[in-house]
Amino acid sequence: AESGKQWYQRRVRGLEASFYNLVKACMNLNAHIEVALLCCMKTPPDYGTSFQALKRTTNLDSLHVYYPLFWDVNLLECAIALHHKRGETMLRDFVIGLMGQPEINENNPPILLRRTIEAKKCVFLRTLFMKFFVR
To answer: Distance of alpha carbon 33 from its chain centroid, rounded?
Structure first.
């Protein structure tokens, strides 16, 4: 019998296709910030698509809700550069403040980083579910 941890780490058949369909659906709904985060959930992260999705975001995309959920420093750096280029100083300064969070510091022990990433991914997926499936 599999232990609980092994059961949850099993690869699910068709998961890649389902994930692709979820990203595609978010793109069709112009949910660009969600696409950026979903692409960072892949192994390895799809930074190309993620950065392109970030470039398409507008102030109507609830950026202030999703930015605290970013676990990938590369994505935060891209967001800072994007807001600087657009002249959006308030959003840029907000994201710079998020970069200073001690829990996403890459010099932390791997177990602490993994817990932080898992927690942020979980909150993101719950938020995504609530946005699209609960009315």
So the answer is: 8
